[in-house]
């Protein structure tokens, strides 16, 4: 663990709360129209299949532990090469893999139409579907399948706590093919493996009326059959879809910036923590909207329980372990921009979302970051801030560097460029990659474009390779 003596006592406490929250969580990932410039933000061959549209209808059991129904996804081939196959990622199987005879995988897909399903691979987190004919550039196709989700018996992003169910990374989503080929990386419990393109979701959840359902997107609930309700959600240009279920207490407010903040919490959650989380969450969404670009989704859900292991971000929804001191809500709200709006390959370049979210977190709380880089201790000359999850998963004791060295590096960049220039850089960088996918090379190029200083030595010193 790096020394953080240069930071104020308040900064240290908040840093430890956020760092512990994030690491614990990870050990258990009318909207604006997409502009033409954003669609091609990443250099090289276009990522495909793009512009996915998910239509999902699921029915939950008595306590929200099992959901069954059907999912359809249509997509376009953005590549110059014919698209002959797609891969669907079943990230919910990441911890359990292919399961055992007594404990099957929690996510099951069956009765595939629109293509021919192969065998599950990558520890049962990837399903290849061969298309009936090659899909030319610009053409659309669709696949559909039955899906069954059984919430695992663990307190995690896809798991449960008492009467509450969390369904993060539960829905199957399309894998991405880009200049590196198909991204079929393994699931990691430290950090995230996720990489998805901005998509549209229309999700209908039929559930017992006693359950409240916070979810990604703009949601509304109507009566269903006797004793049941139906929650509808529509989300545009998001990279994933998550929801929770349980007998939550609720409150709704609208920020001065016009964002609706819906809060959901378990009855045993600290009342002081709920108040602080609601206060900071509402302030953060407006603050980051001013700094990085207006929050485009209109609504965000804050889901709080006392025992959840930290915090986990999804588009328009965050899961938060909440104590008397609050939660990691500011860090998780920052992820709405850094991973959500400005996308990245979270397996290949985790610093682009985690370090950026923690830098925003530090700015929000006014942490003293002067000199914090000099206190960072690196385990090896070979270790880089820009290492992939392949490295961090093999060295989990070093992963904290993403949350400590990363924001320190960005704070040093702010001092190097000047606060005003850094602010303009971050806002323009977000605008240039809005709903797109960025890379380390793209950020370095953007930073160099705003200064006459040669940033080569800076990148070398801060291990940004």
From TrEMBL:
Domain Peptidase M1 membrane alanine aminopeptidase: 326-461
Record keywords: Metal-binding, Zinc
Gene Ontology molecular-function annotations: metallopeptidase activity; zinc ion binding
Compositionally biased tracts (Low complexity): 36-49
Basic and acidic residues bias (residue ranges): 50-62
SUPFAM superfamilies hit by this protein: Metalloproteases ('zincins'), catalytic domain
Name assigned to this protein: M1 family metallopeptidase
Species, as recorded: Streptomyces muensis
């Amino acid at each position: 663990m790096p020394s953080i003596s240069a930071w104020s006592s308040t900064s240290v406490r908040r840093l430890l709360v956020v760092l512990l929250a994030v690491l614990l969580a990870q050990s258990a990932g009318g909207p604006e129209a997409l502009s033409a410039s954003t669609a091609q933000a990443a250099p090289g061959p276009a990522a495909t299949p793009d512009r996915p549209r998910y239509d999902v209808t699921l029915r939950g059991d008595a306590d929200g532990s099992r959901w069954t129904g059907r999912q359809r996804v249509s997509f376009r081939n953005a590549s110059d090469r014919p698209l002959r196959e797609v891969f669907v990622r079943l990230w919910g199987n990441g911890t359990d893999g292919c399961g055992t005879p007594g404990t099957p995988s929690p996510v099951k897909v069956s009765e595939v139409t629109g293509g021919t399903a192969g065998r599950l691979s990558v520890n049962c987190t990837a399903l290849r579907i061969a298309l009936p004919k090659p899909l030319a550039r610009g053409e659309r196709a669709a696949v559909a399948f039955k899906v069954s989700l059984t919430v695992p018996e663990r307190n995690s992003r896809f798991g449960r706590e008492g009467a509450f169910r969390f369904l993060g990374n539960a829905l199957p989503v399309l894998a991405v093919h880009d200049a590196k080929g198909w991204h079929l990386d393994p699931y990691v419990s430290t950090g995230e493996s996720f990489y998805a393109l901005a998509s549209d979701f229309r999700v209908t959840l039929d559930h017992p009326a006693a359950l409240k359902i916070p979810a990604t997107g703009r949601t509304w609930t109507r009566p269903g059959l006797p004793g049941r309700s139906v929650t509808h959600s529509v989300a545009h240009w998001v990279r994933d879809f998550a929801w929770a279920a349980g007998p939550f207490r609720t409150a709704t407010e609208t920020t001065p910036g016009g964002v609706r903040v819906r809060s959901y919490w378990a009855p045993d959650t600290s009342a002081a923590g709920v108040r602080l989380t609601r206060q900071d969450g509402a302030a953060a969404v407006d603050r980051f909207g001013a700094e990085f670009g207006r929050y485009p989704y209109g609504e965000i859900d804050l889901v709080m329980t006392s025992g959840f292991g930290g915090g986990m971000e999804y588009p328009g929804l965050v899961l938060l372990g909440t104590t008397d001191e609050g939660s990691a809500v500011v860090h998780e709200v920052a992820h709405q921009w850094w991973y959500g709006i400005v996308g990245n390959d979270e397996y290949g370049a985790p610093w682009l979302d985690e370090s950026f979210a923690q830098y925003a977190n530090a700015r929000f709380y006014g942490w003293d970051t002067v000199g914090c880089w000099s206190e960072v201790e690196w385990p090896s000359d070979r270790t880089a801030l820009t290492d992939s999850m392949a490295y961090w998963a093999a060295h989990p004791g070093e992963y904290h560097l993403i949350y400590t060295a990363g924001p320190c590096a960005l704070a040093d960049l702010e001092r190097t460029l000047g606060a005003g220039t850094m602010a303009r850089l971050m806002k323009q960088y977000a605008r240039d990659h809005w709903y797109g996918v960025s890379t380390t090379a793209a950020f370095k190029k953007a930073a160099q474009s705003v200064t006459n200083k040669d940033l080569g030595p800076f990148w070398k010193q801060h291990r940004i390779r």
